[in-house]
Amino acid sequence: MGEKEIAVLAIESSCDETAAAVVVNGRDVRSNIIASQIDIHKLYGGVVPEIASRKHIEKINQVIEEALTEAGKTLDDIDVICVTYGPGLVGALLVGVGAAKAISYAVGKPLVGVHHIEGHISANYIANPDLEPPFLCLVASGGHSHLVVVRDYGQYEILGRTRDDAAGEAFDKVARAIGLGYPGGPEIDRLSKEGNEKAIEFPRASIEGAPYDFSFSGLKSAVLNYLNECKMKQIEYSKADVAASFQCAVVDVLVEHTMLAAKNLGISKVAIAGGVACNTGLREGMKAACEKDGYEFYLPTPILCTDNAAMIGAAGYYDYRNGVRHGLDLNAVPGLKLGE
Ligand code: KG4
Ligand code: ZN
What we know:
By secondary structure, this protein is α/β, with parallel strands linked by helices. The strands form 2 sheets. The protein has a 5-stranded mixed beta sheet with strand order 3-2-1-4-5, with helices on both faces. Strands 8-7-6-9-10 form a 5-stranded mixed beta sheet, sandwiched between helices. A hairpin with a 3-residue loop joins β2 and β3. α4 crosses α11 and α8 packs parallel to α9. The radius of gyration is 20 Å and the shape is globular. Bound molecules: 5'-O-[(R)-(carboxyoxy)(hydroxy)phosphoryl]adenosine and zinc ion. Zinc ion binds next to α4.
């Protein structure tokens, strides 16, 4: 293209993954290092914020060094430092933000703070080199369930969001109730394959007047009620059937609301993102719905769906091109809204 290469060093530490990546021109991932803390948090059945911060501090320098080494780059070869500054756990975010600021100051390279959800959405640019906005993206993770119209690079319009639990949170809570480990999404996904998704009719919630919003707490309660009822009546239930029927209910709602939005807004491209986008039922269900109705379907590889820094590098590259710059007073913003 004759264009100057822009190499981004990206850092992500918003939850329980300490991650760093080198990404060139937004889509060419030269390294993507992820140090997962899942094994520690598993012991507690969920992420313990204090432990997350401590583990990030231990790992961050090593992860950044590995990302540079694997990419065959030194800090001198890096043009921009990008870092997730929200939303997320404040103590966890601060570790990445602190590291990014120190590097930016030491080497005199620009600093760009990136929104975590923007990162999840941008994972699609890496996996699909031809994808350009506008497109519709369903973002479903442990902390978020959003339907977002990507009008242009860095321009987002939130169409709908969850009113209560995020989709991933519902997976994690239901998994815990049927005795599966943390994180529950992958466990339910696995177990679903052995169960009958039509065995139990769980509710598919929609909210009057807000067709693109989600609600998963009613579904979670329905699963808990079903389990309690079985216990009281001393009926043995099939964990696999509960997992499959629950997953089917979540996937149905996610697919239905997304396809309705695509149709109503006349958007021809549909993408998914976030940890729940790893779910095989969702990947297959959304693909089938898009094929049936003639929409183009985009999805990241599973490693780019869960938290990683390559997606932050992709988003940060486009932010940088749009002129976004942050000063050394950049702070972690745990409740950061998309588009701020
Ligand atoms: O995007 P992510 O890594 O972190 C957040 O930003 O929240 O998402 C983690 C969430 C967890 O709730 C996890 O259970 C869910 O994604 N998840 C899945 C699957 N893999 C991860 N949910 C359903 N099916 C999966 N295969
Ligand atoms: Zn995430």
